Amino acid sequence: MEETISLQELLQTIRKRLRLILSITFIAVIISGVISYFFLTPIYQASTQLLVNQTKSKENLYNVGEVQTNLQLINTYNVIIKSPAILELVIKDLDLKMTVNELNQKISVQNETNSQVVNLSVQDTNPIMAAKIANKTAAIFQKEIVKIMSVDNVSILAKATVAENPSPIKPRPLLNIAIALVVGLMAGIGLAFLLEYFDNTIKNEQDIEKLIGLPVLGVIAKMDDKEINAMNQKRPDRNARLRGETLGS
């Protein structure tokens, strides 16, 4: 019985504060949309792919041992790609107005599990510049790795390109608005229950019983003018008698 009453109280609180909940949710959605569309700078991404080649041996076209060696070298290559030895040359060739650390933050390198393909991605506010940085980094790495590790087993599979109408990878306005909708709804409901918790006014007979610890024996019904007029119309004899007594007195 207590669980049913608790559930009813929760629903009553939500119904009572529904306007507040909807207002907070609406404000959160509006703020999120305005910030996402007008204040956040769009970020574009360009990617290129590098292949750590399988070195051919005389006995077999593909040597399993050499493939495993190449896979183990990929982690080393991932570090070298973002090293100052490579990025300083990228900055010099493209005449970039940024430091090595700033360029490092724009570049991400990763490879699929047990794959010899390395994905090099660059994020920038300019989609053309992102593609230039990605391609230049891949080309310089392919050239410099020969000097750094004395190996020549890196090939460029695909160059970064710029689409006709590139779409930014972030911000994502619709996703931000959806998150704001959920957060605003939760905040509104939380505030509604908080206000209800601190509201110590007496609203019904149940509140009186909880306050004084005694049962309520009777309740005076509240009647408006419409109900009173309706009752008077149902009892015209009584009204006439009352008028007669009033006149006689």
Strand percentage, roughly?
Answer: 5-15%
List SSEs in N-to-C order. HHEHHHEEHEHHHH
| CATH class designation of the largest domain | Alpha Beta
Q: Could you please say which CATH topology of the largest domain applies here?
A: Alpha-Beta Plaits
Mean pLDDT: 82
Low-confidence runs of at least 5 consecutive residues: 1-5
Structural class: alpha+beta
Subcellular location: Cell membrane
Membrane topology: Multi-pass membrane protein
Main location: membrane
Domain Polysaccharide chain length determinant N-terminal: 3-94
Give an account of the 3D structure.
The chain is α+β, with helices and mostly antiparallel strands and 249 residues long. It has 3 domains: 2-39 and 171-198; 44-158, Alpha-Beta Plaits, CATH 3.30.70; 205-248, no CATH class. The protein contains 10 helices and 4 strands. A 4-stranded antiparallel β-sheet has the order 2-3-1-4. Strand 2 (107-111) and strand 3 (117-124) form a beta hairpin. Helix 4 packs across helix 6 (127-149). The two termini are 57 Å apart. The model is unreliable at 1-5 (pLDDT under 50). InterPro entries: Bact_polysacc_biosynth/exp (IPR050445), GNVR (IPR032807), LPS_length_determ_N (IPR003856). Its main location: membrane. The chain crosses the membrane at residues 20-40, 174-195. Residues 3-94 form the Polysaccharide chain length determinant N-terminal domain. It is a multi-pass membrane protein.
